[in-house]
Amino acid sequence: MSTTFPRVRTSEQGYNVEQVEEFLQDARTAYTAAPGTPGVITAASIRTTAFAMQKGGYATKHVDAALERLEDAFAARERERALAEAGDGAWFASARSTAQEILNRLSRPAGQRFDRTGIFTNGYDTKSVDAFADKLIDYFQNGKPLSVDQVRSVAFKARKRGYSEAQVDLVLDSVIDVMLAVR
Question: Using CA atoms, how far apart are residues 121 and 129, in angstroms rounded to an integer?
Fold first, then answer.
């Protein structure tokens, strides 16, 4: 019986144990692979990893915390390899370019930063997204403190005619990429 993570009660839903264990094995293999070996697991792919739920599975908060640490480790390794291959200038130029694209999007007027959902469809509450977008602008333009964990854990209420969740999530993923790139 595996004890990699604590399990939830047998009557509660947790992450599928076999899927988590398989993913962790794949991640170990990818992380220890020689430089230049094509890998399917990246920091970005870890961020979007999902597992099926099962009764008595692994406690989600423990697995999620481990995935965040794993993402940080992969991002640091990817950064080291990219710096060795392309140099500091190219790496930071790429991060600056992505940050500028983010700022261009977030600098739009409040209420118009992202596409809206249909009249009968829920999306992210525009006011709370815009408020967080203002924090992101302060981070990028003024150096105001903001952690990767704050970006990872931000949650928005659902509202009819809200912002497109896919667009907002894509920008948040890009913010995390930039933050991890310049650590």
Answer: 17
Cα dihedral 175/75/70/164 (nearest 10): 20
Domain extents in the chain: 13-85, 87-181
Distance CA 21, CA 25 (A): 6
The kind and range of the H/E element at 159 are strand 158-160
Round to whole Å and give the CA distance between 133 and 110.
9
- SS3 assignment, position 55: strand
**pLDDT tens per residue, range 102-161:** 999 999 999 999 999 999 999 999 999 999 999 999 999 999 999 999 999 999 999 999
Assigned token pair, 13: 């839903």
Q: Which of 137, 127, 122 is nearest to 171 (CA)?
A: 137
Give me 109's structure tokens. 């007027």
